[in-house]
Structures
1.
Amino acid sequence: QVQLVESGGGLVQAGGSLRLSCAASGSIFSINVAGWYRQAPGKQRELVASITSSSSTNYADSVKGRFTISRDNAKNTVYLQMNSLKPEDTAVYYCHARLFLLRGYEHDYWGQGTQVTVSS
């Protein structure tokens, strides 16, 4: 069964740091593009950061200079390092990835979500 498993969320004080991980498992060959999204209560899900297969990155203006997305191809894992966290970063964070499957085609997957809460 192919799945994305997220970890690393939690409660942190403003100014603190967290690192989220998103590990792809199952019958996959590799991760193509991947991204982290977040959804705060009463708001739409928004793209926070994305990374291509060649490790080109893109960030939402609200997190530029504070968040860093990276990938470890050997581990089929994508990370989101979050520094200088603010209360407005509080949300459920979701990993999304387009995976190259061993069956010979690509498919999009979502993680289950991990809660990040930043206290003031």
2.
Amino acid sequence: QVEFVESGGGLVQPGGSLTLSCVASGFTFSDYVMTWYRQAPGKEREVVAAITRASDRTTYADSVKGRFTISRDNAKNTVFLQMNSLQPGDTAVYYCSTLGMVAGGKYWGQGTQVTVSS
């Protein structure tokens, strides 16, 4: 079955950095645009960044442009999110998934918590 396992979150001070990883399984990873999402307390889940199948194009939410970098390793079925200059407003649970549906559904992992606080 389709599965996403996110890792790499934690507590970091403002201005710090973290790198998130997400290992996918259960589908042909290289056939899909991959996306990082986040959900802050009391807010809806939002798209943070997306990357095309061959990594030739990336897109970012305005709030993270210039600070976050998405990348992928198709040989390892893994997508990454390098986060620099973190701000308290980046505090959220971060999830990865396909941009659209896969295997007839939209699947989510357990997410990884990122907390930015002094």
